[in-house]
Write a structure and sequence with these properties.
With about 130 residues, the chain is an alpha+beta fold. The chain has one domain (about 5-120): Periplasmic binding protein-like II (D-Maltodextrin-Binding Protein, domain 2, 3-Layer(aba) Sandwich). It is built from 5 helices and 4 strands. The chain has a two-stranded antiparallel sheet with strand order 1-4. It comes from Nostocoides australiense Ben110.
Length: about 130
């Protein structure tokens, strides 16, 4: 029996988004666009993108790239599959520069000073016009 259901969406700090001169037309739909938007959102001590290090956040990139943690018949791991390694390499490469970091829990919840302008996050309800 399924426990729950929700979707992963890119959460955007609209104040930072608008301050960077971005519009709805700039909402990224590819990894290259996500990288470029992250660069535009980076300012001072605030990274343009925050990616959590959990399997759910990393798994989103793996699935988007056509991979999965297990092989097709679920009998063995598939971590060496290029679809998995390429996705993880993108996250790793994106996380190295100052344009990306893992945001703190309080920043993700909107409390205190945010450490990232945007981040993927599970959402069980509609996120409005900024949802990808």
């Amino acid at each position: 029996m399924p426990k729950d259901f929700s979707s992963l969406a890119l959460q955007i700090n609209t104040d930072m988004w608008e301050k960077a001169g971005l519009t709805d037309a700039d909402i990224p739909t590819t990894w290259d666009q996500l990288t470029e938007v992250s660069k535009k959102l980076t300012s001072g001590k605030v990274a343009g993108l925050g990616i959590g290090v959990g399997i759910d956040r990393l798994g989103a990139f793996v699935v988007q790239n056509g991979g999965w943690w297990l092989n097709a018949d679920n009998t063995a791991g598939a971590a060496a599959d290029a679809k998995v390694t390429d996705a993880l390499k993108y996250v790793q490469d994106t996380s190295r520069p100052a344009t990306s970091r893992c945001p703190t829990t309080s920043a993700r919840a909107g409390v205190g000073r945010p450490s990232a302008s945007s981040w993927p996050r599970w959402s069980s309800r509609a996120t409005g016009s900024r949802a990808p």
